[in-house]
Automatic annotation (TrEMBL):
Alphabetized InterPro entries for the sequence: CobW-like_C, CobW/HypB/UreG_nucleotide-bd, P-loop_NTPase, Zinc-reg_GTPase_activator
Region (Disordered): 221-240
Native source species: Vreelandella malpeensis
Superkingdom in the source lineage: Bacteria
Known role: Zinc chaperone that directly transfers zinc cofactor to target proteins, thereby activating them. Zinc is transferred from the CXCC motif in the GTPase domain to the zinc binding site in target proteins in a process requiring GTP hydrolysis.
Signal peptide: none
Protein name (Swiss-Prot/TrEMBL): GTP-binding protein
Parts forming coiled coils: none
């Protein structure tokens, strides 16, 4: 039976930090008699993260693509949460903001009058890839620092790609912050123990002002009749781009009957600039596959997704070009 207030966990972190992987590890620890809900916010337009979760009756996943929860999507977040809680009646709620999302507006809503009696916000967790501390553009990014500032605890991720020196520098960096994190966990096997979230209790309030960039609203997005439906015609992909906060997302979507060459897909995604964040799910001649690329490393896994093939690429504006998009679209052709 669900508690009077649903334990709610926010797992934040910058682009490519491994938030979704950590949430997968939490789901793997879910007690069999519980139902969980997962709300995923995405910077891009096509809702790729929702396709990254396996379909199951005891975990309800809802995606909110097309912007940041605290600004572009603030007006649909409350309605989406109310609907998700009423439909799933979850024993636990996990929220994954966009890697470019500022957490202030989300936390204001979760602790506000609408959800105060329904949700118990536990310690805020931030995923940190130690390698990002070597990148001045990331280390000095306002959202990157505010995600760390609002977090109560830190999970060091992507450790299979980080050196021992980078790990040590990450620990030193976190020890010098004030207030210091309650705990720092090294996700050696890409796992976040559920017990760490249970022990923290309700998160203390931290005042954090939203930067001006997150207060500017473009035309409000609509989730009705959007890029999800209807499916593209076979052999005719749909493409949509959007720019905000210094980054541009490119979303591509194909008919589910279109099939791709997995080796060519891996080659194309591996050739993207190192700063590119790319995620996709494709119908290939080797079956349905989930591709995930961050910090130059590409992983490929089997997928149960069958709705369509889709790809999301996020790049800094300085490395985004219309010619590059056109070239990629030309090379990403389904098999004849």
């Amino acid at each position: 039976m669900s508690p009077a207030r649903t334990p709610t966990h926010v797992v934040t972190g910058f682009l490519g930090s491994g938030k979704t992987t950590l949430i997968h590890s939490l789901i793997a620890q879910k007690p069999g008699d519980e139902t969980w809900a997962v709300l995923v916010n995405e910077f891009g337009q096509i809702g790729i993260d929702q396709a990254m979760f396996e379909e199951r009756d005891d975990v309800v996943v809802k995606g909110l693509p097309g912007g940041c929860l605290c600004c572009q999507l603030a007006f649909v977040l409350q309605a989406g949460l109310v609907n998700l809680i009423a439909r799933a009646r979850p024993d636990r709620l996990i929220i994954e903001p966009s890697g470019l999302g500022h957490p202030a507006g989300l936390l204001d809503l979760l602790r506000g009058e609408t959800f105060r009696e329904a949700l118990e916000v536990r310690d805020i967790v931030v995923a940190l890839d130690p390698r990002r501390l070597d990148e001045p553009k990331v280390r000095e990014h306002e959202t990157f620092n505010d995600q760390l500032a609002v977090a109560d605890a830190v999970v060091l991720t992507q450790l299979e790609h980080a050196s021992s020196d980078q790990r040590a520098r990450a620990h030193t960096f976190l020890e010098t912050r004030w207030p210091r994190p309650k705990w720092v966990h090294e996700a050696e096997r890409k796992t976040l123990p559920l017990t760490l979230l249970e022990d923290g209790g309700e998160a203390p309030f931290k005042a954090l002002e939203r930067p001006a960039a997150h207060r500017r609203l473009a035309a409000p997005p609509s989730l009705e009749g959007s890029f999800f439906d209807p499916a593209p015609r076979p052999g005719t992909p749909r493409c949509e781009t959007a720019s905000s906060l210094g980054y541009t997302s490119t979303g591509l979507r194909w008919h589910p009957d279109d099939r791709f060459d997995l080796d060519l897909l891996a080659q194309l995604l591996s050739a993207l600039p190192r700063a590119a964040r790319a995620k996709g799910v494709f119908h290939t001649r080797d079956g349905w596959k989930r591709l995930n690329r961050a910090e130059g490393a590409l992983s490929v896994e089997a997928s149960t997704w069958r709705q369509d093939s889709r790809l999301e690429i996020i790049l800094p504006d300085a490395q985004t070009s219309a010619d590059g998009h056109a070239s990629l679209l030309e090379r990403l052709r389904p098999l004849e």
